[in-house]
């Protein structure tokens, strides 16, 4: 019998890559879909799997829909990827962010606890929970948390409530503390995709500038396709445990700009990039740099795609997509 996986956030970047991986591993894949007028299946279509996954109507804030999904499917594995995932907007919609990212996770865990407690549960935790906290410049599973945005605070609640369900009720519930991971499917408001799409537009003559905020921020950027493999491995262990997933490399937004512009033959990006205060955050996270030694040792997981290859992959994908439309 095929294993059943339920993925919340199936239409997002990670939802699409994870679904592809699970289909390759012969799972029946179901996703919770929000009702909206302009539904977008772009990510699932881009990976060519839209017609291979199944959808259940629902919303992380609506417990009835979660009960329906868990009761109907009785999934072996549940991946909770749904979230208001944009840090920058979380100061503008802090209550929604808390209701979806924090209380939504509790609703899903609670539903599993009462209806189908043997399901294995994965929570999409984040390096944003560390804020500016580090140990000699690095973050590990042991680094203290100090969240700096409504997004990160809501995610920290979800992180602890996941651990609490494991410790209180013996559930197989784990958190992956994932550092930034990107791809050609990345939402267009995130800095990497904003840059690669902007660079492609400038190169093709249909754009003139990119407006950005803090160019000195440092991130440990990996490839989403590698990171979903780690999520799956976390649910295949004998004992439930949390893991940090990162590349171990950190780079500034400026370095991302250097590589992206250089890749299309523009050596100096200064004439094209404007710093715009509207993209500065009330409190930013300045530097993230993860050490994923525990994942390497226990999950046998290591990133395959590194920074330069990631930047080139994203620029090439945006060039190809935009050129097709011209
Ligand atoms: P994403 O592309 O923004 O996708 C978010 C998904 O959540 C979308 O499918 C969205 O559906 C869904 N969603 C939002 N609100 C919902 C609600 N109320 N009910 C049900 N579904 C809802 O995010 P991602 O980059 O794939 O990230 C996946 C998860 O990992 C998120 O929880 C994110 O916070 C976390 N995370 C991401 C990173 C990263 O670098 N990418 C790092 C650490 C953690 P619609 O299509 O309907 O909008
Ligand atoms: O910002 C700076 C910005 O929005 C990265 C989410 O997936 O990863 C993501 O959150 C850095 C920040 O990602 C612009 O200030 C400069 O320092 O691409 P981002 P994020 O905030 O790190 C974590 C791990 C998650 O969990 C989240 O869900 O880049 N930056 N100028 C800018 N950022 C944006 N978005 N736009 C700019 O114009």
Walkthrough of the structure:
- The protein has 326 residues and is an alpha/beta fold.
- It has two domains: 4-181 and 222-245, Rossmann fold, CATH 3.40.50.720; 188-219 and 250-287 and 305-325, Alpha-Beta Complex (UDP-galactose 4-epimerase, domain 1), CATH 3.90.25.
- The protein is built from ten helices and 13 strands.
- It has helices at 13-24, 42-46, 63-73, 94-115, 150-169, 191-203, 224-234, 253-263, 293-299, 307-325; strands spanning 4-8, 28-33, 54-57, 77-80, 120-126, 173-178, 181-182, 210-212, 218-219, 222-223, 243-245, 251-252, 273-275.
- Helix 3 runs parallel beside helix 4 (94-115), helix 6 runs parallel beside helix 8 and helix 6 (191-203) crosses helix 10.
- The radius of gyration is 19 Å and the shape is globular.
- The termini are far apart.
- The model has no long low-confidence stretch (mean pLDDT 98).
- Residues 85, 87-88, 126-128, 179-180, 189-192, 194, 212-214, 217, 219, 253, 279, 281, 284-285 line the site of ligand F7E.
Low-confidence blocks of residues = none
Q: Specify the CATH class of the largest domain.
A: Alpha Beta
CATH architectural group of the largest domain:
3-Layer(aba) Sandwich
SSE string, helices as H and strands as E: EHEHEHEHEHEEHEEEHEEHEHH
Number of strands: 13
Tell me the Rg in angstroms: 19 Å
Please list the strands of the largest sheet in the order they lie side by side. 3-2-1-4-5-6-11
Label the overall shape.
globular
Mean pLDDT comes to: 98
